[in-house]
Amino acid sequence: MSDKRKHRGANPQDCLLFGEGKVPALKQAAADYAELLTKKYPQNASLKLVGDKFELTDRQRLALMRSCCSKEQSENRKFKQLQTSELAGKDMLIDGYNVLITVEAAMSGAYVFIGRDGCFRDLAGLHGTYRKVTETIPAIAFINSCLTKLELSKITWLLDRPVSNSGRLKKIIELHTSSEVILTDNPDVDLKRTEKIIASSDSIILDSCKRWFNLAAYVITQENQPAKIIDLSK
């Protein structure tokens, strides 16, 4: 069956799973999960323990997994994080799919979660194929507008070559921005090793990179987006 979704990240069940009445339990579950991670308990076992305790669904557990990290990880990431005032004249590498999909989800009115490290993360998935949605071009244009305000020297988007339709997305980004777009077999490696500022909310990348900027959060908070934001940062 072909995927006919026109928007990013919207799920009919989310209003029930993440509605106002569910938020207090989610926040307590996030606190408990983060505490276990801080104490070096295994991630999967910790998530199961907390998920079972609060009777969380798989999607609710996914929100916790993407939002939580140990105190040490959070402090390390925030230590390497740059602010808007530190970006002028610098080069930036953007984790293309990571940033774009989060902004698309926010613009579609999906739930977005603020993690323990301050990053904004969505629940949309990328399973080997990227599908252009209604929000794609507006999201690219809005990201580009926000980047222009930061007065960066050079902006480069990195896209995963193995993901289907990366070539098409590359052309769309080039059409609507003045940024360079590079298809690479493994963007994670490039983002971890570069001396340039990177833009991503991927936890593995943030733990290894040298300097980063919280681009998705910056973009989403620049204008009132229809995203339903749940703060699990504290």
Can you put this structure into words, describing what you see?
The chain is of the alpha/beta class. It folds into two domains: 12-68; 81-226. The chain has eleven helices and eight strands. It has helices at residues 14-17, 23-38, 43-53, 58-67, 71-80, 96-107, 136-149, 166-176, 187-193, 203-208, 215-222, and strands at residues 91-95, 111-114, 120-121, 154-160, 180-184, 197-199, 212-213, 228-231. A five-stranded parallel beta sheet has the order 5-4-1-6-7, with helices on both faces. A three-stranded mixed beta sheet has the order 3-2-8. Strand 2 and strand 3 form a beta hairpin. Helix 2 (23-38) runs antiparallel to helix 3 (43-53) and helix 6 packs parallel to helix 11. The mean pLDDT is 94.
